Each structure stands twice: as C-alpha cells, then as structure tokens.
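Exercise 7 asks you to align residues with tokens for two separate proteins.
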Amino acid sequence: MDVAGLATANPVWVGSSELTMTLDGITACVDAGAGAVVAKSVNESAAAREQLAIADYAFVSAAGEVRSPGSAGLGDGLLNRSGLAQVDLDDWLAMLASAVSHGAARGCPVIGSITLGEPAGAARIGHALASVVPAVELNIGAPHGREARAVRQLTEVDGVAEAVRAVRAAVEVPLFVKLPGQASDVVALARAARSAGADAVGLVGRYPGFLPDLDGGSVLGSWGAWSSPGCLPMSLYWVGKAFQRLDVPVIGTNGARTAKDVLRFLAAGARAVEVVTALWIGGPAVLRELADGVAGIRDDFIGSALAGTREYADVPPLPSPAWLPYTARWMSSGR
C-alpha cells in the first residue's frame, strides 16, 4: 500500500501513543505485522514532556462501567490524559534511527511525529526528524491542546496553513498532517493543509471528553481525550467528505478496533488506518488479525462506498416512510 509515495507493508498502521514511545514498543509493533508505525510525538516544550507524569487512562464500557486497562473489552471507550515523550531530542533521534532500521528490514516504515507547540519549534524538530525517518506526521488535532498549555489544537484555516507551511519548508520527506474532528469544517482544514504542502492528511483526532463519576468527582479527576467504537461513523464522515472533495491521500484514525472497522475506513476513502486503543486492549498480536482481515484489498476498493452515497437532496423518496414502524411501535407501547 502506497501513501503519498511512502510504501507500507499493509494499510494497518499503529498511531502515536505511549505504546510507541520506546524502541521495544516500536519493534514489537513492527514484528507483530504493522504496515507502518508512528512513534510517540515530541515537541519543543519541556512542559509537554512533564505532562506525561500525570498521564492516566480509564476504559468505559457501553453501560458506563469504568474499568482498568487489564479488564477492558474491545467495545470500550478510552478516556485519557497524556503527555509527550520525556527524552532529549538527540537521544530520541538515535532511538528512531534504530527503529527505522528494524522496520525497513521488514517493509514497515517508522514515522516521526510532532505534536504542535509553536510552528517554528515544530519546523526545527521536523527538520531533525527528517534526517532519520522516511516521513513526518504533524499532529495539529490533539484534543489535549484544549487543556494543556504545551500543545496546540488548530481549528481555523489560517492557523493550519501557517503551521503546515512552516514545517513543510523544513522537511523534505513526506509530511502527513493530522487534523481535529471537532472543527466546523474539517474538509476546509484539510484543503488548507494540502495547499500549504501536506502530502497526506490524517482524519480525525480524538475528541475532548469528560465523565463525572457521580461520587462528587470525575473520572481521571480532570478533562481528557475520548475515543470509542461510537466515534467511527463520525470519523468516517470526514474521511468520506475529504475523499470526495479533495485530491489528497487520507489516513484514517479514531474508532477502528476490528478488521471490519479498518475496511470501512478504506471504503470511505482512507489509504491507511491508524489504530491505538485496540492495542491497549489486545496487545500487539491484534495487528496480525487486522492485517490479515484486510489482505488482498485493491486500490479500487478505496473510496468505493462513495459511489452510491448521495447528498440529501438527491435521495429519492422511500417506498414507505421509514419512521412509520417506529412510531407505530411507540404508540402501541402506550407512551
């Protein structure tokens, strides 16, 4: 599978997280069958690194039960608070060089990642990363950017263009830009990123989250970032719209837990899909199951769901109102 000139073993990628913060973590994902691995994000801010010390994770079942990582199920949502890698840049580059070498021997590129602090700092780090990795991901959609002062989440076209343009000028390898999902027009952000030099866009970042525990406090004791299988249709909405309206490769993220989920991302227009929470729950072995589940997919499958998808105004009247059986059942229940 080729994404903006980057050849990958398959379309199942591992997204940036604490799971890809060490050489052991990255090589475990490579060896388990990942198509590509995105290393944990870094930026220029010491405060962003310090925030990792307060990282916390809560899995939430569909019934609202809060569970520890060891007892989580594949259908659970994840509410978390996170930070960036606590490492000096020179040490990080040395680790990445080893990871890249390990991945290259297995057809699995290892991608460097920056979570935006300031555009100038991101450009400096991007230039350094590009000396050792085959591609760089610029994350300007991190939900923690709404809470943590050390990282930023950009939801306006001008801000996206400025940040991407700065990093593009410093990076000669493919540049992937990860965008938020809660902007008023994510396609406009993707268009701005593409015009400023992005080779591909990642859609979409996780959403801000908050969950009271009903005992006078809240889960995690703070706000956080949220992802769940229920986010899948929301992510696919923007993937499909971007595929339909823009000439830019799309990397899907936020909501894929199973091979069927990955296939839905591909059918909506993604060329690759980043997974993280599925690995928190099932470990690296999940990657082989996902990769096997999408084996043999051809290029003509990408975006195939859009062929029969209409705008509301173009949907023909249904033979009978779809709401009729629901209202009839509601009436018969005596409500």
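Second protein for Exercise 7:
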Amino acid sequence: MDRNLKNAVIAFLAPLPSILFYLSFLNHCHQSQTNQGPIWSWCYQHPLFLVNVLFFFNVNVLFWLISHLLNSHWMIDLYWTVIPVMLVHYFATHPLGQYNYWRSIIVILLTWVWSLRLTHNYFRREKWQWGAREDWRFNDMRAQYGKHWWWISFFAVYLSQQVFLIGVCLPLYVVHSVDKPLNIWDIVAVLVCLSGIVIAYFADSQLHQFVSKNEKLKQLGKPVVPNLDRGLWGYSRHPNYFGEQLWWWGLVLFAWNLGHGWTFVGSLINSLCLAYVTILVEERMLKKESRAHAYRLYQKTTSVWIPWFKSSAVAEKDKST
C-alpha cells in the first residue's frame, strides 16, 4: 500500500475506539434512563473525567504505540487541529450538558472554522501528504535523548498534549455546562476569536508564499530571500502565534462571561509553552549562517508577538555600525 494512503487510513482509524465507546454510552443512556450499570453511571456523572480517560487511552497510549510502529510522531500534530472539534461535540452531546443553544452553535461553528483553517495549513505545509514528516522539535528531542526517547516520548509528546489540549478546551466545557442568555460579552468573545483566526490565516499564508518563493529561487540557482519581513511579518516576528493565542483567549472570554474565569489557566499554560517554542524557533533561525545577520536585525526592529510598528531608529543605528 502507498505510504500516503496507509498513513491516511491509520489517521482515520486511530480515534475510533473512543468514538465507538462514547456512542455506545450515548445509546445506552437513551435506552435506559434508570437501570445504568456502574461503568455507564460513572460516565454519566463525570463528563470531564471521562474525556480525560478517553484521551489518555486513545491518544496517549494508542497514538504512542502507533508512533513506534511508524517510527514517527507525526499524527499528534494533525490531531491537534481535530481534537478540539471532537471535544466541543462531546461536551455538547453529553447527557449532563446544560447550555444556551445559540451560544453552543456559535462556539461549535467557530471551532470548526478554526480547525479547518489549521488543518488546511497543516496539509499545505506538508505538500498534501499524510505523515510526510514529524515536528522538528521531536527530531531534536529524539537526537537528544537517544535510546531513552522511546519512553520519554510518551510524556514529552503525548501526556503533555493532554494537559495542553484539555486545558485550552476547558472553556468549551463551561459553555456547555452553564445556561445563561447571550450578552455583549459573547459578541466581544466572537470578535476576538475571529480576529485570531483571520490573523493566523493571513500570517500562515504569507509564510507559505515566502517559503514557496525561496524554493523556486533555489531550483533556479538564485539567492534566496534571507528573511520574511513583509505583510503581517513586518509588524510581528510571529504573527501566526499571536493569532493562535487570540483564538484561545477569545474562548476564555466565553467562560469568563459565564462565571468561570479560572479556565484562563489552560490558555496561560499554552501561552507560556508557545513563548518557549518562540525562543527555540528564533535560536534555530540564528544557527543558519545565511540568515543570521538579517534575523538579528529583524529581532531588533520588530515586535516578538503583538503586532507593532518597526523600530526604524534601531535599524538605522545597526546599519551605521
């Protein structure tokens, strides 16, 4: 079987155990409202614990085992774009869910739009291949930990993803746990979420065009452009990260409006993690001799995350020296 087709089949089959289990649970709830066994009763009473159990066994354990068979952890990157959609539908369909119908519809639609954008960007970046490569950070850790990587990867790649993904998706749980009429803060939250999606889309599209152009220049034997500093990238060194954070903090606004501002913890942890990733990315850029000088100047003149005007004074000073 073709490798691309094989990986596609694996990706579609991998989440089936948790999906089938949850559908069985829903079917049992519909058929028997009173005579529930201990397992089904526990699933009914503990929706947040249940989703963590399903995540642990289906993603952490099963995906981890599959990754060793494939010798690649590519699948977790793809499912980062899909799991929030699965979670929002899980929270919306769980029998204990109590929520405002229209807020639920809005959040579900927003989550789908976010997911489609990120999934499209993933496949565009991977040249429409399934599992063509794994994240460069995993490659670095594989080299760093050597023979211990097989077990360290369970914690570094999978268990950590559960903390991040369940954490940032806590507002989706709150939205489907509190029934409160829509108000002005819901509109604010929608605007923040949409702004994040739009900014991330244009930032990733501009980055894709830049990379594609440089690939063509290489093929023609011409010098490549050392650094992307046009469009949104002229105002922020990581506008795609900024847009992604706006999306998650927009979801926090939904939860805060419903009296559960504590859910900001998930987005805070995610933002701190992304700040660390930003440092790794910039260190990686500076290791490339062909672009190190241009990137240092870029660092001096351009905001890290939040889009802002360039510091032209710093640029002129650097050129004069």
